[in-house]
Request: fold
Amino acid sequence: MSTNSNNFLKPNYFTHIYVEEEIIDHPRTKQILCRFPRAKTIIITHYKDVFNRTHQSFLHQKNSPNLILAKKHGELILKGAPVCQGFGEEYFYYTSSIMNCLYDCEYCYLQGMYPSANLVVFVNLEDIFSKVAELLQYHKVYLCISYDTDLLALEGLFGFVLAWCEFAKDHTDLTIEIRTKSANEVALKTLPVLPNVIYAFTLSPETIIKNYEHGTPSLFARMKAIKTALSLGHPVRLCFDPMIYVANYKKVYEDFFHYLWTKISPDSIRDISLGVFRVSKDYLKRMRKQRPQSAILQYPYEPEEGVAHYGRDITNEMMDFAYQILSECYDKDRIFVWE
Ligand code: SF4
Reply:
């Protein structure tokens, strides 16, 4: 399975766009519909009527996802989950303004979390902003906005990163993390440079990218984007998370880390996140059904408090190994390890 990461920028990428009647007149809805003039628009009552249909094939939909425009209700901001790296932040939250991603990483938890691979875009960002502003009255906020999608990859279509930047510019007690595997230099060159907007690039050795991170940009392209981001002054975080336990992982990751520091100056990086693959036990069950032939998903993970991972011994071995190599060139205090 492979998804060409450039195809979704084409005006005919989505053949059908489902729009909740409640937001049909929302300015963001109109802007998005204009981008896809050839798509058939279907008015619906609630996004779940389409998204939660039974008997959908996540993998099948990945090849040709539809777009759903909706209004986000309920809890707009959530406390950071235990499987996520919190970077020592006391007020660590995340929010999802877009559900699903156009990349197709074999280990992606979204295929276990959602019943559909269709892309849901919640157009009422202003309601999320209001909620964040409310929280900011009481304390600082550290907010991850690109967990259940890749917002930077989608910036050319939806402009959500720019909207968040504009909000963050006026709220300096807010720090935003934008996690990405994209190499969207065009966006990085046009987005405002702000000290409280961190671009967190997830990097993997090229062999891991080729084998498991289907449709994502190559290591070379991601590194080029990182260099562009740094040259412009954007705060950059490097995420080696998830590390994957492949047969010769020490050699693969050691070569990768050494290569990295020949291209990027360690001093220019804000911090580093390290973690091994882990996923909710329940999601893993569904992910395995989707991809019965996947070696990475069929590995005998060990369950611990609802989370499946490699087990304490392997996890510690991998983390110690990576931490040691990275700390040869990088400040230990700025390496955050998921445990
Ligand atoms: S980039 Fe992240 S969200 Fe997108 S498919 Fe890969 S793991 Fe999932």
Observations:
- The pocket of iron/sulfur cluster is lined by residues 101, 103-105, 108, 110, 150, 181 (CB under 6 Å).
- The chain has 14 helices and 18 strands.
- Residues 180 and 290 are 24 Å apart (CA to CA).
